[in-house]
Amino acid sequence: MKITKLEIEQQSALISVDVQNARLHVESPQRRMKIENNPPEMSVTRQDPEVLLDLSSLKENTGLKTYDQLISDAAAKAKTEALVAVRDTVNESRFIADTAAGGNRIGRTAKDEMLSPSDPDMGHSPVPPGAVEMDGDPGTLDIQWSGYDFSIDWEGELSPEIYVEPPYSVEVEIAREPSIRISVSELDIPNPAGRKIDAEV
């Protein structure tokens, strides 16, 4: 005995889901400090000290005179001595001419001149050392500094760099397609046990 058999095979779909998380990157650059230092330059202006000596007085008193100085000194000395002589002569004349004084005025005058003290003439006179006039200039020393410069600069960016690598993504794909398979087959089965009844009632 043959029978027909209906067979249905069903295969479900298989879905694959791949999730990739995002990764955040933060990069902070390092800034570099640049220092510029220009040393100063020193300039020195110097004037040497100077001493000025005036030896004219010392030279005059030590006999180191010029012709003009010798003539001038001799003229001054002669004038002084002449004035003194004239003054003494006038005084003596007045004394002798004075009749009220009485006595022998001429003899008294001669006596006074004879007894008047006098310094011996040694042919020379002591020479004083004289004074040396000195004028000094201490000089100058001027120091100037120029060209000094000091600066600090920063190179590079200060703001951080932020980026996402890799980005967030979801990938969905069908790993297995769905399917339905229907088939019909015939099967042979043994006849059922029993007997045939062919009768009319």
SSE inventory with pairings:
Layout: E1 2-11, E2 14-20, E3 24-27, E4 32-38, E5 41-47, E6 50-54, H1 56-61, H2 67-97, H3 105-115, E7 133-137, E8 140-146, E9 149-155, E10 161-164, E11 169-176, E12 179-188
Antiparallel strand pairs: 1-12, 2-11, 3-10, 4-9, 5-8, 6-7
Quick summary:
The protein is 24% helix and 40% strand. It has 3 helices and 12 strands.
Description:
The protein is an alpha+beta fold and 201 residues long. The chain has 3 helices and 12 strands, in the order ββββββαααββββββ. The protein has helices at 56-61, 67-97, 105-115; strands at 2-11, 14-20, 24-27, 32-38, 41-47, 50-54, 133-137, 140-146, 149-155, 161-164, 169-176, 179-188. Strands 1-12 form a two-stranded antiparallel sheet. Strands 2-11 form a two-stranded antiparallel ribbon. The longest helix is centred in the middle third of the chain and has 31 residues, at 67-97. InterPro entries: DUF6470.
Number of helices: 3
Average pLDDT figure: 76
What percent of residues adopt helix (DSSP H or I)? 10-25%
Question: What is the terminal separation in angstroms?
Answer: 29 Å
Radius of gyration, taken over Cα atoms and rounded to an integer in Å:
74 Å
Number of strands: 12
Instruction: Please list the strands of the largest sheet in the order they lie side by side.
Output: 1-12
What's the overall geometry?
A: rod-shaped
Q: What ranges have pLDDT less than 50 throughout 5 or more consecutive residues?
A: none
Major β-sheet annotation:
2 strands, antiparallel
Give, in order, the helices and strands: EEEEEEHHHEEEEEE
Proportion in β-strands: 35-45%
Find the structural class using helix and strand composition: alpha+beta
InterPro entries: DUF6470
